[in-house]
Specification:
The chain is an alpha+beta fold. The protein is about 20% helix and about 30% strand.
């Protein structure tokens, strides 16, 4: 399992645009692997959001396929 670092909320000015932006980190909810950063307009209530990486999606979908009853 990989663990990423979490960055604090950092409102800042984007280069040349004159607008303030914040960053939102996307992290896999299963393995905590960082999936990416997104620039979003403030105010930002949360600095982290969760998704699922390809590896965990494959594992979870395999588990779900095996646990779903088949219809006759």
């Amino acid at each position: 399992m990989g663990h990423g670092t979490c960055r604090e909320y950092e409102p800042r000015q984007s280069a040349g645009a004159g607008e303030v932006v914040a960053t939102l980190q996307i992290v896999c909810a299963w393995c905590q692997q960082p999936l990416g950063w997104y620039r979003v307009p403030p105010p930002l209530a949360f600095t982290i959001s969760y998704g699922i990486c390809a590896r965990c999606y494959a594992e979870v979908s395999q588990e779900l396929v095996g646990s779903v009853p088949q219809l006759p």
